[in-house]
């Protein structure tokens, strides 16, 4: 394997533009994302953070009147190519939403959902995947005696960890998280943040957060978005101590937002 392959960014987004009808929501985004790092996206509401995140696994491709141009290279392949297999892509690029949204099924079936879609049927194999995913999100001890109880009976923080386990069960390379703690209490938030720091040993994580302290605590790199543009992306300590762009400085010092 060449050095170039070893160091290649997992995502390399080039000149990405996205329109919802007439609304130009992402403007000329160039954004390489490195493997096994946590990249945080910050910026005021409506600046395109969720739109950008969803473009990484084409969750927004099916919205009527969406137009996307440019390149979203994932592992060297431009996923905007119409031949992209969306089921396969989402196996590699999992997503966790703002509000834990477990299916109205058992804890076990929620985690087994993805592997079953990908054709895994053997009970011993599913048991192994479910156990491992629940251990990985530090939920196993809390639920091991009630795996067949309804997932909706869990607390908000547990539901969010369950959704992370569901995303991990297909062994993704990348985990996209859209404000995963914004609906959680401080203790559940802390657990998710600790989890993110553990998961980055194995996964690439891209997280949208409205909370700048959270970005500072969990991320290696931080990207600042404003009105559809990526203003700058840099090592997190640099963004918070010496941003290059005055708009980033204005935002992080609370002058707007
Ligand atoms: N499905 C959609 N249809 C039309 N406009 C949308 C849609 N989703 C988002 N938008 C618009 O695109 C812009 C960016 O939204 P979004 O990516 O959700 O921002 P953020 O996550 O930074 O708050 C906003 O102006 C929003 O109203
Ligand atoms: Mg959003």
Structural description of this entry:
By secondary structure, the protein is an alpha/beta fold. Helices cover 37% and strands 25% of the residues. The protein has eleven helices and ten strands. The strands form two sheets. The chain has a six-stranded mixed β-sheet with strand order 6-7-8-3-9-10, with helices on both faces. A four-stranded antiparallel β-sheet has the order 2-1-4-5, with helices on one face. Helix 5 crosses helix 7 and helix 7 packs parallel to helix 8. The protein binds adenosine-5'-diphosphate (ADP) and magnesium ion. Residues 20, 23, 25, 43, 45-51, 63 line the site of adenosine-5'-diphosphate. It is found in: Cell inner membrane. Keywords: ATP-binding, Cell membrane, Membrane, Nucleotide-binding, Phosphate transport, Translocase, Transport. Its main location: membrane.
Quick recap:
This protein is α/β, with parallel strands linked by helices and 257 residues long. It is 37% helix and 25% strand.
Please specify the SSE layout and strand pairing:
Blueprint: H1 3-7, E1 11-20, E2 23-33, E3 38-42, H2 49-55, E4 66-74, E5 77-78, H3 86-92, E6 93-96, H4 107-117, H5 123-136, H6 140-143, H7 156-168, E7 174-178, H8 186-199, E8 204-208, H9 212-218, E9 221-226, E10 229-235, H10 236-241, H11 246-252
Helix pairs in contact: 4-5, 4-7, 5-7, 7-8
The structure holds adenosine-5'-diphosphate (ADP) and magnesium ion.
Residues 20, 23, 25, 43, 45-51, 63 line the site of adenosine-5'-diphosphate (ADP).
Membrane topology: Peripheral membrane protein
GO cellular component, one term: plasma membrane
Domain ABC transporter: 11-252
């Amino acid at each position: 394997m060449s050095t170039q392959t070893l160091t290649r960014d997992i995502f390399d987004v080039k000149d990405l533009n996205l329109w919802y009808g007439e609304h130009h929501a992402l403007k000329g985004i160039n954004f390489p994302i490195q493997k096994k790092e946590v990249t945080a996206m910050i910026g005021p509401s409506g600046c395109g953070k969720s739109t950008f995140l969803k473009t990484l696994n084409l969750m927004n491709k099916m919205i009527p009147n969406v137009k996307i141009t440019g390149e979203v290279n994932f592992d060297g392949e431009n996923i905007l190519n119409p031949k992209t297999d969306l089921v396969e892509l989402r196996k590699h690029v999992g997503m966790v939403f703002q509000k834990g949204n477990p299916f109205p099924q058992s804890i076990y079936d929620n985690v087994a959902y993805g592997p079953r879609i990908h054709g895994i049927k053997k009970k011993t194999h599913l048991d192994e995947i479910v156990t491992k995913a629940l251990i990985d999100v530090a939920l196993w001890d809390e639920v091991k005696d009630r795996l067949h109880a309804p997932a909706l009976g869990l607390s908000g923080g547990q539901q969010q960890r369950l959704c992370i386990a569901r995303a991990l069960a297909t062994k993704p390379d990348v985990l996209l998280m859209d404000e995963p703690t914004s609906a959680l209490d401080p203790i559940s938030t802390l657990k998710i943040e600790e989890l993110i720091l553990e998961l980055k040993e194995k996964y690439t994580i891209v997280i949208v957060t409205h909370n700048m302290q959270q970005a500072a605590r969990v991320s290696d790199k931080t990207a600042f978005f404003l009105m559809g543009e990526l203003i700058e992306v840099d090592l997190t300590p640099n963004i918070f101590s010496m941003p290059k762009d005055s708009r980033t400085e204005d935002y992080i010092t609370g002058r707007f937002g």
